[in-house]
Design brief:
By secondary structure, this protein is of the alpha+beta class. It contains four helices and eight strands; from the N terminus they run αβαβββαββββα. The protein is globular and about 50 Å long. 34% of the residues are buried.
Amino acid sequence: MKTLKSLPKHTIALMMASLAAIGIAVGASIISFLQKDGLERLPAKPCHGAISRETLQKTLQDTKSVNLRTFQTESGFTIWETTCNVFTREKEGIHVEARIRDTEFDGWIEDEKRIASDDGKAIQFKAGRGAISWPRRSIMYVPCNPKLADYKPVGEFALMVETHIRGSMRIDGEELRQRLANITIQVANYAREVVDCQEKSFLPPPSDHVVPS
C-alpha cells in the first residue's frame, strides 16, 4: 500500500481538494425566497453585499416578482465560492459568481476564448491578471492565495469571477457590456476581501469606461 509521501504531487493536491470540498459542504448555506412586489422589494445589497439593489434595478426589466438565490461557503477554506442569482417571473435574470480554483492563467484564458467563441465580440480589459468582456458575459482572473490556504497548489490559486445574464435587460449594447464588467469588478473586490487574498492584484474602480470601446 502506497504512503502519502510516495504519491505524485498532483494526486496529493487532488486529495486535499476533495477534503476541502467536504469541509465546504458543511459550511455552506443557501437562501431562496420569492419577492412578491418586484425589484424594489429586494434587500438593499442582496448578493452578500457585493452588488446593490440599485444596480440590479438599473439592469433588469421591471417585474412583479423576483427569485433571489444566494450561496456562499465559509471563509477560510482553500476551495471557496460565492454565487448570487436574481431571476424574474419572466425567466430573465443575472448570475454572478466568484470561485477560488487551482488553475494556471494561460490555460484558463485560452479555454475561455475557445468556449465563448460564439458569444459575440470579445474584448479584453485590464483587471486582475486578465479579464474578458462579451456583450452578455464578463469574466476575470484574479491571482489569490487565501491566507488560510491548507495546501500548496499545483499551479496557482486564483479567483475566477463571472457575471452573465439570461433574457432581455433594461439596457443593451455598449451600456450593458460595461455594466456587466462593472459588476464583475465589484464581485471580485468583495471576494478578495472575504478570502483575504495575499496578492494585491490591480482591480479598477467600477465606472462607465472599464471596457475599451
